[in-house]
Specification:
Elements: E1 3-6, E2 12-15, E3 19-20, H1 33-45, E4 50-52, H2 61-70, E5 78-83, E6 85-87, E7 93-96, H3 100-114, E8 119-124, H4 133-145, E9 149-155, H5 159-168, E10 171-177, H6 189-196, E11 199-203, H7 236-256, H8 260-269, H9 284-291, H10 300-309
Parallel strand pairs: 3-4, 4-5, 5-8, 8-9, 9-10, 10-11
Antiparallel strand pairs: 1-2, 6-7
Helix pairs in contact: 1-2, 3-4, 4-5, 5-6, 7-8
Domain NADP-dependent oxidoreductase: 16-309
GO molecular function: oxidoreductase activity
Organism: Nocardioides anomalus
Length: 328
Amino acid sequence: MDTRTLGTTSALDVPELGLGCMGMSEFYGTSDEQTAVETIHRALDLGVTFLDTADMYGPFTNEQLVGRAIAGRRDEVQLATKFGNERNPDGSWVRINGTPEYVAKACDASLQRLGVDHIDLYYQHRVDKTVPIEETVGAMKELVEAGKVRHLGLSEAAADTVRRAHAVHPITALQSEYSLFTRDLEDEVLPTLRELGIGLVPYSPLGRGILTGAVTRESLAGDDSRAAGYFPRFRGDALDANLALVDQVKRLAEEHGCTPGQLALAWVLAQGEDVVPIPGTKRVRYLEENLGATEVELSDADLQALEDAVPRDAVVGDRYADMSTVEA
């Protein structure tokens, strides 16, 4: 695995492809802990050492799972987790919480669940619009000073919020959704990140799996959140329109001798050396398939062909049914 560097003022070296662990515990169908642990172990063996979790996944159980999986191998891992989406143990929603006291409390709880003495990259999962970002990041800065956290990040933050946060303490990375299906941040956010020397960590770089070509109406199980209305792109006529776009990606993938998912990931990887996608999976075979994207070479003409096949304004439906927690 080649490495890439997130951030300049507070730099973190990571492999060019990370692993999103959320689906191992929640949201995308049934979970199998043994299979998930095997997937994490295989990832580490293959050099995919940048692992991403959050306290709200499960809730809480995903951090515990990741902690068990990396026990004895902590020194190999660049460990990222998040706070801010506050949930009760029964999974019910509380609020987005960016208060300084909650920052400290959430970090200590994550450290305990993960079984580690520090977090390599600690993100505010969503921006609390009731708390000035300077106060939240000020509390996060104290975690760095205490040695509990090495680097700071934000998630789904607007350009102005990123700028204000970076003035308090260097921000290493912004984690936001970015793929052939989601390119909004190219207008203001990505230029701001590059001006400030902040890396981009795209989550859902495969459009929540639709860009793999494996999603159909029939494939979405009843316990899969994509079928429950939370993600409008997977419902009704929107799904039909979006699957038609995926058919174009499949056509181009055949020409490249790779899978649609590998081609879509290769497009994300080609957006810059400061971009490190974290495709999520809970199975070894999909992990290995995703890694194949690093071998797909795309010319400028190839990139343009992909962007012509999936125009920015052609994707139907919002990313979330409730977009209020995402800063525009």
